[in-house]
């Protein structure tokens, strides 16, 4: 018997695999939290499948999303990234990744970890939304708006509330798997 899944993932095997394996699973590793932030930031104006199809190259191009390495990228490395057809070559998004890595280092000093900072917005709890129909999924909420505002205040770029809401879904802070989806109960 086929498993029932969120409808958004049914467009390709890659999307189904991402949905079944990664989307909505709580993440607590600083490097992976940072990687997902940069990937969601790069999705702005694009489809998730575009990012998913480039994900392996993103990890290679951005040194496995090593926060310290990215924070120290120079103009030469920025140019190298702008020439890489395997990633999103938007000049502003590349500069934002470097800028945001530098700010994540500051956050780690202040909070002890990026994980502690991210999860502080929900006091370490996963927000369980009751989604019976995918049209009910909001594009943002109060938590995403508060995090976006704080990140912007710290100087981060490409962290608007809609991007941050998608990020929070991806890293499992918000469980927006539809109630009929087999992953919803697995992630409660």
Can you give a write-up of this model?
InterPro entries: Adenine_glyco, DNA-3mA_glycosylase, DNA_glycosylase. It comes from Lactococcus muris. This is DNA-3-methyladenine glycosylase I. It holds the Pfam family Adenine_glyco. Helix 6 crosses helix 7. A two-stranded parallel sheet has the order 1-2. The chain has a single domain, classed as Hypothetical protein, domain 2 (Endonuclease III, domain 1, Orthogonal Bundle), CATH 1.10.340.30. It starts with 12 loop residues before the first helix and ends with a helix. The protein is mainly α and 188 residues long. It has helices spanning 13-21, 30-43, 48-61, 67-71, 75-82, 91-111, 114-120, 142-153, 161-170, 182-186; strands at residues 127-128, 174-175.
Helices and strands, with pairings:
Blueprint: H1 13-21, H2 30-43, H3 48-61, H4 67-71, H5 75-82, H6 91-111, H7 114-120, E1 127-128, H8 142-153, H9 161-170, E2 174-175, H10 182-186
Parallel strand pairs: 1-2
Reading the helices and strands in chain order gives HHHHHHHEHHEH
Structural class: mainly alpha
Rough outline: globular
Low-confidence stretches: none
> How many strand elements?
2
State the end-to-end distance.
Answer: 23 Å
Give a concise summary.
The chain is mostly helical and 188 residues long. 56% of the residues lie in helices and 2% in strands.
Can you tag this structure with a few keywords?
10 helices; Endonuclease III, domain 1; globular; mainly alpha; two-stranded parallel sheet; 188 residues; DNA-3-methyladenine glycosylase activity
